[in-house]
Design brief:
The complex is a heterotrimer of chains A (492), B (228) and C (261). Among the domains of chain A are: 261 residues, Rossmann fold (3-Layer(aba) Sandwich), CATH 3.40.50; 73 residues, no CATH class. Chain A has a six-stranded parallel sheet, with helices on both faces. In chain A, 50% of the residues lie in helices and 10% in strands. The model of chain A has no long low-confidence stretch (mean pLDDT 96). In chain C, the strands form two sheets. Chain C has a four-stranded parallel sheet, with helices on both faces. In chain C, helix 7 packs across helix 9. The chains are: A alpha/beta (492), B alpha/beta (228), C alpha/beta (261). Chains A and B meet through helix 3, helix 4, helix 5, strand 1 and helix 6 of A and helix 1, helix 5, helix 6, strand 9 and strand 10 of B.
Amino acid sequence: MKHIIEEESKYVASAKAFRANVTRDLGNEELRSNFRGAMDYLMDKRKGAFSSEDELEVLREQCKLIKQRCLAKLPHLLEQLEGNLEKNGIKVHWAETITEANEIIAQLIAQKKGKSVVKGKSMVSEETALNDYLEERNVECLESDMGEYIVQLAKEHPSHIIMPAIHQNKKQVAKLFADNIDGFEYSTDVDTLIQQGREVLRNKFCQADVGISGVNFAVAETGTLCLVENEGNGRMCTTIPDLHIAITGIEKVIEHLADVPPLLSLLTRSATGQAISTYFNMISSPRKLGEKDGPEEVHLVLLDNGRSQAFADEELKQTLQCIRCGACMNHCPVYTRIGGHAYGTVYPGPIGKMISPHMLGLEATTNLPTASTLCGACGEVCPVKIPIPKILLRLRQESVKPKSQQPQVMKGQGAGRNNVEALIWKVWAQVHKSPTMYALSMWGLTRFRFLMPKKLGGWTSVRTAPKPAATTLHQRINAKQKKTQQSQQERG
Amino acid sequence: MTNTKADIKAVSNTARGNILAKLKAEVNGADYKKLPEEVSFNYPKFSREENLAQFISELEKNHAQVIKTTKENMAEVISEQLKVLNITKLLYGENDSHREVINALDSKVDLQAYDFSIDNNKEMLFNECPAALSTSRCSIAATGSIVLWPDENEPRSLTLVPPVHLVIVDANELHADFASLMTSQQWQDKLPTNVVLVSGPSKTADIQQTLAYGAHGPKALIVLLINI
Amino acid sequence: MQQLNTQHLRDYPKKPKQVYLFGTCIVDSFFPDTGMDAIELLEREGIEVIYPQGQSCCGQPAYNSGYKDEAKAVAMAQVKQFPLDIPVVVVSGSCGGMMRHHYLDLLGDDPEINNFCQRVFEFTEFLVHVLRLKPIDQGPKERVALHTSCAARREMGVHITGNKLISQLANVELVIHDYESECCGFGGTFAVKHADISAAMVADKSKNLLATDVVRYVSADHGCMMNINGALDYQKQSLRGEHIASYLLNRIKSNSSKGSL
């Protein structure tokens, strides 16, 4: 047996370039305005989607508990899912790494002599960079979700997990279509653009021999793959070609069919404010004898890629509750400013800051958990109540821990540790835990306040430097008390 | 690219063993009875009329056309709709329940039964079938959703590929919400190859958050609501 | 930090005779007037204010930077400074959130810590829910904006109490600015570590505050104000933020000149 040679994720390099990416995208005014507009729209949609605060809060609690139950039983549910899928005729494959997942899919396609693939939206396949892998093996891979199609034409990656092309406006899309679609009649009218995209893609659905999709919920009890979508491309990919391959993360399994309605309801409302998506597609088997359509073969690839690392820690495990609605990024003031590409990771925004360190290691992602004011807007809207700021704090701790400290919770522990910074905090703690040292340092600060520099790095690039007071609160209260005592004595 | 001939079955087996071992090491000895009790929201109960109104309003909000009709008038209504849309050909499922309707359609409509396998017929399905007629199993008021339960007679692509989808919905089969529907019909015991909830025509807002209909699936969803 | 705003679940004590004041390190070294004003306001309500001289910082800077052990040492030293079973009033929502919610996580859920956390009140929360303060406005007609820090909003509910206090001032019109609930971009070391993102955020916040055309905005957190006021000063704008303690005191004193103690 030949071994699979693990390829490093291409996102390692782009995540490492976070700071440069941020500088690039903060300076792009068109991009900034595209994101601000889109986030305002999505926040507004979500706000109008719930009948009452009460309904929202009960649903969030319910869905949190459902996901926590499913995670508590994860290995058993995965086995149950596998058993029921196989019983239904759907073949199950397991992959620990992205290369394993890609290789499994490449070989499944090769076995069927597949040459052309249509893809439904799948962030997990972005995670594995499946398109690149297949194209290197001469398999044509076409993204069919309108947003993904635009992004693929532009040779970019999704900038948002629900709306992949949110960073582009209609003028930019029109130009892209003009450059890439034969016979495109130039227009910036969205309807016209979509209709022209539709024509191209329908031809591809008709001809493709493989369909690849993601999975929103995999139901263990029945062996069912559930897909949430509005466009119908997901149904196309899973219905028309002869071979359907679904790929998903191991955390997407849920126990009961009855768990689906609350999760679905909260997913679509949190994501786009829709009561339900246009299509909710539940697939439980390949084409049965006598049926006239549907794929002859259906496969599911279950991917780990760092998820089991998060699973092993009680606090970080909550990361896996995520149902990928995107509400955290829609409400994130940092995401709104820098956009989705700056993160350099597949999953941007708060969810990306939490999950990417497990996928890529803290060495590549050490700047992500710190790129947050911990304002809590994400945690406030998270439909499954992941304490996002708390998890970011935890990742910061893992990042600055000494490399050798046990237990080793994460790949890349200590990657953000800087000895000078660590020493500063040590001294800071010594000063602030001792009243005498603190008083001394405050005396120094007020006494020598004229020495306070006018320039304080990044702070003073847009702000003036704060000036220490001439006397501290401690000193003023002390003085006040002395005065009171004095006057009491005088009177006495 | 020395990967090409790795044995994926062996790869998958090893991965399976490793993943499950890691996960099981963490849940070892867990007592599932100790999981917290789960909560759920008590939705108010609605009357049949309220549910119907909700169903229609949700569908219309999502750009579906809802026509209240009867079994007797259905053929006439469909013929009229096709005429308005300038459609002369109708693909339909060979479903006994609406055979009479099919037989009574305007004789100018070219009728095509979905009595073929999709293999080798994709071009025809994609390019020569402007409209399709299907039944539905039931529907959901809260979200304005129609439950399609494809089978040998009404294949999955019947309701997906043709640009216009006409669907017969029986108001007597309207359920308040998805959860109560699944529970009352015990779906967990008998899911078919595919079930689809449809809540409007295909749409997308992927370009600058502007809604456009007919992204990939049907551009129009016409709901023929009977037994009101 | 999910839904830690438990004000509505909290049992508020009766008006106490004495309280502790936790001044916060920023107020101590940069804005001592705020601390003095908070004390005066509380004293006017007949409350004796004890200010332990051994206090320093809540530990949040180290905690938010991932230095848990260092934060823990400093946090523990604070708890020791407030032994009496009386309220600890904190003139910052952010530090208040740290002491009320995160100390349990940081120092462990033992009875002493738990008792301490239960005694922590953010300043406006204390005025509204414990003192049930009904400020009598003596100041001139004025429009103001209110900026609530994120921790204050999401952990302590200060957007509600702050709003309530301002709304009770008869001559003051509260103007809501665009993106009112959005973060100003301070975030402690974030403003230094990710200075360019922080700059973009404070640029928007100051723009939205300026658009209200008020002469003053009010906040219960000096962290945010150091950020926003610093940006406004840099932009040579006259708009400034004022701590709600000073603002309230000024409004309720008959002669609106600030009394010094």
